[in-house]
C-alpha cells in the first residue's frame, strides 16, 4: 500500500508538472486542453495529495491568450539556372566575354551568386533560438511566467499594442522598448515587493513577427513578414535571394528614410564577418542596387571568377579576392585585357613579382590572366626501361652515367649490358640525338670513356635481354623521324634477318654493323657469317634518287681489327640465314611400335626410315589399321569444316524463309539442327590414308615426312562398328560367317532416314569401299567385312523425311571425323 501511494503521488506530480511547462504552438495547446478534459476524479485526488490543484492549473491554461497561427510566406519558386550565364554574357567585362561572346567566357562565373542559386520553398519565422538579454521587446512578443512557492500557476503574457501587459496581481506593466533583461529585472523586483512568498520564472515565448520591405534587385521584391530576430541576410533568404544583376557589395538597410547600414556580402563569403549583418526592425527597407564595376581573373588563381569592385582596388586586391595565386602560377607572366577609349581592346603585361605592377589600379571590364608554369622539367635527368625505379632525378654539375647506374642491384634480372640509349636535346636547335651507352662498362669502370657526362634533360633508356624493344623505342623513333627535312634524313636505321629483335633503331654517330647487331639483341644461331647486304638510299643527286646495294663479309665486320663500315641514315642491314639451316622437325610414333615417342627428322627422311629407327612394330600391331595424320591436312580440313558449316546455315535459313513443306516436318528440322550442332563441335583430324603394309614391303612409294606428322599403330582389333542411321550405333564382335546385313540387323536395322543404297564400308586402314552389286553384297575380297572395319549408313536425302541434299555430305564428314577421333582416343599416349 505504501508503494502504491508513492506511485500515485509521483504520477500526479508528473501530470501537474507537465501542465506547468509553457506550451508553444497550437498543436501543443490542443494536446494540453485534451489532457485537462480527460482528468478523472481519481487523478484530481492524486494531484491534490501531491500539492497541486488541477482545476486551478487548467483554468490558468484556459486563460492564456491564444496566438493566431503566423501566416507563412508564399512559396518561392526554385531559382532557374540562368543568372550565371546572363551575368557572364551581358554585364561581365568585355575582356571576359569577348567581343563576340566566345565560349571561354562561360567558364567564368560571377562570384557569390550561387549562395542564392537554390531558394527555399517556404519560410518559417525563427522561434526556437535562444533570445539574447539585449533583445528589445515590442508589441506581439509573449512572455511565459511560472509562479511557484505560495502560489503555483503558469500563464503566457502578450505585450499589447500599447506596449503593456496585464500582469496578474500587478496590473498593467509597460514593457515595450525595454530589453529582455531589463524587463525581467523590473518584473522580479515588483513580484518580490508585491507578492510575498511567491517566486517567478520568466522566459520568452513566441516572438513577434514584423513586416519589412526588400526592394531593388531582389529575386522577388516586395513586403515580407519575418521574425523579430531576423537580420539582413535572413531577409535576403526570405525574398529568394538577389537577381542576376544585383550588387553583392552594397546592400543597404534604410530606416525612416535614412541609410543606417551597408552590407558587403564579400565580407561574409570570404571572411565570415557578420559585423554589418544587423538585426531588423519593423518597416525596415533593404535596398539592393544594381551591380557595380566588374572585373575578371582567370588562370592560375585559386578561385577564378568575375568579381565586383567597390572602387580603387588594385591588382593585388583582385588576387586576394581570388584566393591568391595557385601553386603552379608563373607570376612573372601575367596580363590584363583592358578596354581602350577608342572601343578596342589592349593588353597590359604584368610581372606580379614587382610591387609597382601589383599596385596597378583596376578599371571596369579588366580581365586579369595569370599564366601557369610550363609542363617541362629543368635540371633533371631521367632513367627508364628495364629498371626497378624509373623516373626523374635531379641533375648536378659534373654528373655522369655512373651516378644513375651504380650497380646491378638497381635492375631486374636480364639487363642488356651491351646496349642502352641516351637521348639528348640540343639546347640551341632543339634537335634530338641518340648516344650509345654500354651499361656493363659503366658499372665495371666508373669514370671511364663509357661513363658519359650527363646534361640537363638527358634520358637514359635501358633494355632487357629477352623483351621486344619496338614499343619501348617507338616514341624516340617518332621524334627522330619528325626531324627529317630535305637535306637531313631521319636518323633511323633498320636490320632484319637472324637477330633477336629485328626492326628499326636510332642511328648513333659513327654507328657500325656490330653496334647495330648489339642493339637488336645479338645474332641467333642461324645467322650466316658470310655475305651481308646494306641497302642505302643515294640522294646526292637532287634530280634522281638511287638505291645502292653494298655487300661485305659479316665475320670481317665483327672482328675488332676490321675496317669499320659506318652506317648512314635510313640504311637497311639484311642478314642471311646459313644454308640448309632448318628448325628442328619432329614426328610422333605411338601405339604398337617397339620404341614409341617423338623423333627428330632430317630433311628428306621417310616414314620407313623412322620406323626402322623406332625398332619396327610389336607382334600385336595391326599394320592395316595404322592411322597417319599431317598438320597441313588438318588445316585444310578446318577450312572445309568452316565452308560446310556456312553452307549448312545458309541452306537452313533459306528453307525456313521460303516456308517449304520440308521444314514443316518437325523431325526433318530436328535432324538438320542436330547435324549443324555436330558439325560445329567436330574437330579436324587431318588423316592421310596410307598403304603402310605395302610401304613396308616396298611395293608402294615411301612417304617423305614433315614436321608434326603422327603415326598411330593400334593393336589387332576384334570388333566391327556400325554407325549412322541405324537404331543403335555400336560395335560388335567380329564373326567369321557374318555379312554386312547381319551386323546392321544386330544394330537394330535401318532407321527411316537411312539410305540403304548408299551404305559403304570403311576399312581399318581408312579406305572406303562402296559395294558394286545389289544391296548388302560385296564381290571382291576387299569388300568383305573384316575385324576393325566400320559400316556406315548415311542419311537419305530423298527418303520419307525430306532433308536438304547437303545433309548427305555433312553427315559423311561427321562420320569420318568421328572415326578418326575414336582412333586417336584409343591410344593412351599421343
Automatic annotation (TrEMBL):
Domain SLBB: 211-288
Keyword Lipoprotein: yes
Highest taxon of the lineage: Bacteria
Signal peptide: 1-32
This protein's UniProt keywords: Cell outer membrane, Ion transport, Lipoprotein, Membrane, Palmitate, Polysaccharide transport, Porin, Signal, Sugar transport, Transmembrane, Transmembrane beta strand, Transport
Coiled coil location: none
Domain Polysaccharide export protein N-terminal: residue ranges: 130-203
Pfam families: Poly_export, SLBB, SLBB_2
Gene3D superfamilies, per the entry: Outer membrane lipoprotein wza domain like, wza like domain
InterPro entries in the record: Poly_export, Poly_export_N, SLBB_dom, Soluble_ligand-bd
Family assignment from sequence similarity: Belongs to the BexD/CtrA/VexA family.
Protein name as it appears in the record: SLBB domain-containing protein
Organism, as annotated: SAR92 clade bacterium H455
